Amino acid sequence: xxxxxxxxxxxxxxxxxxxxxxxxxxxxxxxxxxxxxxxxxxxxxxxxxxxxxxxxxxxxxxxxxxxxxxxxxxxxxxxxxxxxxxxxxxxxxxxxxxxxxxxxxxxxxxxxxxxxxxxxxxxxxxxxxxxxxxxxxxxxxxxxxxxxxxxxxxxxxxxxxxxxxxxxxxxxxxxxxxxxxxxxxxxxxxxxxxxxxxxxxxxxxxxxxxxxxxxxxxxxxxxxxxxxxxxxxxxxxxxxxxxxxxxxxxxxxxxxxxxxxxxxxxxxxxxxxxxxxxxxxxxx
Length: 284
Hints:
Layout: E1 4-9, H1 14-18, H2 25-32, H3 41-50, E2 53-58, H4 63-66, H5 73-82, E3 87-91, H6 99-110, E4 115-118, H7 120-123, H8 133-142, E5 146-149, H9 173-181, E6 187-190, H10 197-206, E7 210-213, H11 224-231, E8 238-239, H12 249-256, H13 263-278
Parallel strand pairs: 1-2, 2-3, 3-4, 4-5, 5-6, 6-7, 7-8
Helix pairs in contact: 6-8
């Protein structure tokens, strides 16, 4: 049986690291204290396969806001097709692009991608902007969960003006209105949402279509309120993720083991919740 589903994997291919993340890489290395080197798709697959894990590969489209080339959903679908036993794919669109973004969601569904990834600070948009609602409505109608970055981001850290990235767009309260208006849309709040962690917990407790996702932070840094929430009322709506390659599954889980979760709770967070949300019975 699959041991875990990593809900947050950036494929560290050279084309991605040099392209979409090019000017941000040195800051990311410093923030995560990680040796981030390019890998081949076979190396990534072998790594996750050796751990009995599944990797959710994320597309990326912040080209309008950053000038960096997109890593498309079509490219992610190609990677998933090479190793379908170990990869699941999420697309990405720039929601500011209106009808083109909606068309991109339909293309993601046609390609068999399981959801969409959004990064408001890097893409420079507010999720609550009513002009973007056709995108959220399309995702709801297609039954595609949306993974939305919340909280601090290491992207642009240390660069003049933060590399043009505005942290305020990562406030999870900007997402709550979408959860209210579209209760059938599954919304995953990516990362512990510092410095808005309490707001994220409150929103997820109150809105049953909102999930927490734990990537990008070592569990040793989780605040007690987050630990209590995911052990208790949010146990069935909490998802494991790493932010690979910046954190690895091995590094994350070694820290998580020290928090004293039961075997059943650990399995639910690491595997079962994602299997249910994404319909991954064939992998499980």
